[in-house]
Write a structure and sequence with these properties.
heterotrimer; B: about 140 residues; 4 helices; flat; C: about 500 residues; mainly alpha; two-stranded antiparallel sheet; 22 helices; about 75% helix; globular
Chain lengths: ~325, ~140, ~500
């Protein structure tokens, strides 16, 4: 309790901009989503843990809107002095291929991949199919009859559902919602038959016994849900597919600064607080250093460009 | 028919028609049932009809009265203030705007001209920046 | 249950819980009263502070902010014609006319009373029947939400007290403005050209601040010859002594209860927020009144209805959040995050696993509404002092708060420009007698109506059956039709005489 009061007092002091000895200039971390959501809380918890290692306060700045395009665009156009960082999300690999915004990973210098959550096909507990093969059999007999909820046309989970349908040669009626949460609510109410959002997002309902996961679009089972099978286990060939979050700086930031930031944030990601927070929310921690993250971003961009044109979603 | 209704109605019809034409430029995604242009066309169509109804209405139009010239000057001052924000930043612009606005509307007391802007900026800094952690409009010249 | 409530009461009576609840309510009232700072933003921005607190303390602090901000919006709405948050947009309609009649004191008394009583009752409903109601909330899907939005939009026909044509123009303009940007159903962009900012759409809150508050600033300048501004006041007189009489309060009880029911009900429905609840309650108050013509001219019921509705929404919104773990709107989504950070998983298991804590929260919520009453009631006199401030001083203050509020929405300068343009538009609309409320209502409900209509048609594979085979949908659609046609009936009735 005293800590909370102290925290407020501390916040007052550091908000007033009193630069202590040896303190560096404050950093800004742009979050392209609204405050309070998953990406925002991940960014805030990580930033708090990284402050001691960096020796500088980090201010989180939410710039939501336009499928995260606005925040990421401003992050890419910030001065490349290593003082403005951006929490990028999977939309970075999709926006350009959809023809929505002229922005891709080449505008950034990667620092660290933070998190990766695979997509999953989730149905209600009382659904008549218990395995992915029973589900696929039903879908083959009734093309377009199953209602598959996603987080908006052109969003990552819509692409996931289309990819799944394409790979398994089945057809669904895709129902777009304004985000993953309303789609989950609709499944809870029995208004749709399945959702294609991430396993992390349905985790609470799987644990409480309302939903069952038929298959995860990943090579291995995920830590938070060891009982959920992967597609590969069931002998269904579906590409690995998931959403991710990572830290980047504007392109052109010096390599020295990138390495310094990467070291500090890697330390932060290993802290007990961050690990416990991620485990509690069911988010998968997936740390990649700058070089590995750069390769990952290249692969993702190529994957989505190919996938979107195969699916006919690119203009 | 009266002139004011005719003008207002015509403006509505023109704007709505422009928007109606713009709906034909929407890309057709061809993947869902009701198109993205369906409701915008309904809205603009309704606006065109309503605009025509207004233009032809004989109902006497009321006017709030007052002197719009003073408001127009006020709008210009506010526009200059808003335009200055990205360069001067919130604090500096406000310390310049508030006294000029006060002077424009007839405040002459030097205490008011100095203390009110300072108090206002102080409150906003305290509440927004310190408590809520929102950095209010940093400028390029001065943050 | 009584035993659990007793336990909760003991736990809630710790000094730090009470202190932070009080702090939350005070901060909430300020957040709510400032244009641009919404409940969601206040709760979200203060969320990190609670990470280090104990569960009950931290969550009740945020709940204090949430509840307080619902009430706070009414203060500026009544006194300076500026809704501090979208939830208070409907309060302006009769709150400000009351102030102009010199009844600001009474209007604030009504809003304080109705906010706290409405909120209190809705929390009681939450405590007593939450699990049963949760099942009802889940029955709402796309067709029901579409019907609710259409019903909300039909209110435009009753909001247009002057010229119906002008009211409808304003409403359709709002609907059209709301279509700008990325369409979530088809994934394509509309009316946005190459602008990244327009891709994200136009923030209705920025438009609301401009239409209501900024336009008012421009209008104040109009009247202000140099001499009048320095000495003149916002309104000519404040009948300080003329408080709310018992008789007047009795006449409000039915409205208060009906609006509380509407607010609690809409709160439970995923996707509909306090702004919708307030407008619907206002409309129903007007529909059931013997003298609907008095609305918009400073009717006491016109203040009581939206204020009871927006605060009673809070208890309703907690129903799906706590019993199912479903956030119905943006604020409850943030609260869900706060619960998860504290290691609490809302849902059916919450009551079993964390019974004492849940009841502590319940007691805290009841207390928050009592605090709103105590703080609000004791500050009414202080609030009305705003009215004796010379216009000249108010102009720069409101103006700067509008600018800061619009910026704070998304940290975007673009929103400031939208706000300014909306201010100019609002000034012109007020001057030429176009009502501004329908435009705001259109922007709030337009996206809700459109995406749910199209989603419903996707879900039904294009069949229209979905709109009349589902009972809730059919009833709401009939209500919408009745409201739309009510001006016509009234016209026919007067014609026959």
């Amino acid at each position: 309790m005293k800590r909370a009061l102290l925290l407020i007092a501390l916040l007052m002091i550091h908000g007033c901009g009193g630069d202590g000895e040896g303190q560096q200039r404050p950093l800004t971390l742009i979050v392209p989503t609204a405050p309070g959501g998953g990406t925002d809380t991940v960014a805030r918890v990580l930033a708090t843990q990284a402050e001691p290692a960096l020796g500088a306060p980090i201010g989180v700045k939410n710039l939501p809107g336009a499928s995260s395009a606005i925040g990421m665009f401003q992050g890419a156009n910030a001065p490349a002095d290593g003082e403005t960082l951006t929490m990028v999300v999977a939309e970075l690999a999709i926006l350009k291929s959809l023809g929505l915004a002229d922005i891709d990973h080449r505008g950034f210098a990667p620092i660290m991949l933070v998190n990766y959550d695979p997509a999953a096909i989730t149905v209600r507990r009382d659904a008549p199919y218990d395995t992915i093969n029973e589900f696929l059999d039903y879908a083959r007999e009734h093309p377009n009859a199953l209602l598959m909820g996603n987080s908006g046309t052109g969003s990552i989970w819509h692409v996931a559902a289309e990819t799944f349908g394409h790979a398994t040669d089945t057809r669904y009626t895709h129902v777009p919602f304004e985000g993953a949460a309303p789609a989950i609510t609709a499944l809870l109410g029995g208004h749709i038959d399945a959702v294609s959002v991430s396993a992390a997002e349905v985790l609470p309902y799987v644990n409480s016994g309302e939903f069952k996961i038929l298959g995860v679009m990943a090579a291995q089972r995920i830590e938070a849900l060891p009982e959920a099978p992967t597609f590969t286990e069931a002998g269904v060939e579906v590409p690995e597919f998931g959403t991710w979050r990572g830290l980047v700086a504007p392109a052109g930031t010096s390599q020295e600064r990138i390495d310094q930031l990467a070291a500090a944030f890697t330390e932060a990601a290993q802290s007990n607080e961050f690990q416990a927070f991620m485990a509690g929310r069911g988010f998968g921690i997936e740390i990649l250093p700058p070089a590995g993250f750069a390769t990952f971003l290249d692969e993702q961009a190529a994957f989505f460009e190919r996938t979107l044109s195969t699916l006919g979603l690119a203009p | 028919m009266n002139a004011r209704n005719l003008t207002l109605g015509t403006i509505v019809v023109l704007v709505a028609t422009a928007a109606f034409i713009a709906t034909f430029g929407f890309r057709d995604p061809g993947i869902e049932r009701t198109g993205p242009a369906f409701l915008p066309r309904l809205y603009t169509g309704a606006l065109i009809l309503l605009g025509l109804a207004l233009a032809l209405s004989r109902r006497p139009s009321t006017d709030a009265g007052g002197a719009p010239a003073r408001s127009l000057v006020g709008m210009a001052i506010v526009a200059v203030y808003v335009a200055a924000l990205p360069w001067l930043g919130f604090v500096l612009s406000t310390l310049l705007l508030a006294p000029s606005m006060l002077a424009y509307v007839g405040m002459r007391s030097p205490w008011v001209l100095i203390l009110l802007p300072l108090g206002l900026v102080g409150f906003i800094q305290l509440f927004f920046t310190v408590l809520l952690g929102i950095e209010v409009l940093p400028g390029q010249l001065w943050q | 249950m009584l035993e659990m409530l007793g336990q909760g009461l003991v736990l809630a009576m710790q000094w730090q819980v009470l202190l932070f609840l009080l702090l939350g309510v005070v901060v909430g009232i300020i957040v709510g009263s400032l244009p641009g700072l919404t409940s969601t933003m206040g709760v979200a921005l203060l969320l990190p502070l609670t990470f280090a607190m104990e569960a009950a303390t931290g969550i009740l602090f945020l709940i204090g902010v949430y509840f307080g901000s619902m009430y706070g919006g009414s203060v500026t709405a009544i006194l300076i014609n500026t809704p501090g948050s979208p939830a208070a947009a409907a309060t302006v309609l009769d709150g400000y006319p009351m102030t102009r009649k010199g009844e600001a004191y009474k209007a604030l008394q009504i809003s304080t009373l109705c906010s706290s009583i409405g909120g209190f009752i809705s929390v009681l409903v939450l405590i007593l029947v939450a699990p049963q109601l949760a099942a009802f909330a889940l029955r709402f899907s796309a067709p029901e939400t579409f019907a609710l939005a259409l019903f909300g939009l039909s209110i435009i026909s009753t909001l247009s007290s002057g010229s119906m044509v002008k009211g409808l123009i304003s409403g359709f303009a709002g609907l059209l403005l709301a279509t700008i940007g990325l369409d979530p159903i088809s994934g394509i962009t509309r009316f946005s050209g190459d602008s990244l900012h327009l891709l994200g759409g136009i923030s209705f809150i920025a438009v609301m601040i401009g239409l209501f508050a900024m336009s008012e600033v421009f209008r104040m300048m109009e009247g202000s010859s140099a001499v009048r501004a320095a000495t003149g006041q916002m309104v000519k007189s404040v009948k300080d002594k003329a408080g709310l009489s018992w008789k007047e309060f009795k006449s409000l009880i039915v409205t208060l209860l009906r609006s509380t029911g509407i607010g609690t009900g809409i709160g439970m429905i995923p996707g509909a927020g306090a702004d919708v609840a307030a407008f619907v309650a206002y409309n129903e108050a007007k529909r059931f009144d013997k003298d609907p013509e008095s609305f918009g001219k400073g009717s006491l019921k016109g203040v009581a209805a939206p204020e009871a509705a927006n605060n009673s929404l809070t208890g309703g919104a907690m129903v799906p959040l706590l019993t199912l773990g479903i956030p119905g709107d943006a604020v409850t989504a943030v609260l869900l995050g706060a619960l998860l950070v504290q290691g609490l998983q809302p849902g059916p298991m919450l009551f079993e696993n964390n019974g004492p804590l849940v009841y502590t929260l319940f007691i805290g919520m009841l207390l928050a509404n009592v605090l709103i009453f105590v703080i609000g009631w004791s500050c009414i006199r202080l609030f009305t002092r705003i009215l004796s401030v010379p216009i000249g001083l108010m102009i720069p203050v409101i103006l700067v708060l509008c600018v800061v509020g619009a910026y704070a929405l998304n940290n975007q300068f673009f929103d400031v420009i939208v706000m300014l343009l909306a201010g100019m538009l609002g000034y012109a609309m007020k001057r030429y007698d176009f009502p501004v409320a329908p435009l705001v209502l259109g922007m709030i409900l337009g996206p809700m109506m459109e995406s749910n209509l199209r989603r419903a048609l996707i879900m039904s594979q294009g069949s229209l059956d979905i709109f009349y085979t589902r009972p809730v949908t059919a009833v709401l659609l009939l209500l919408a039709l009745a409201t739309l046609l009510s001006p016509l009936f009234r016209w026919l009735r007067t014609r026959r005489r």
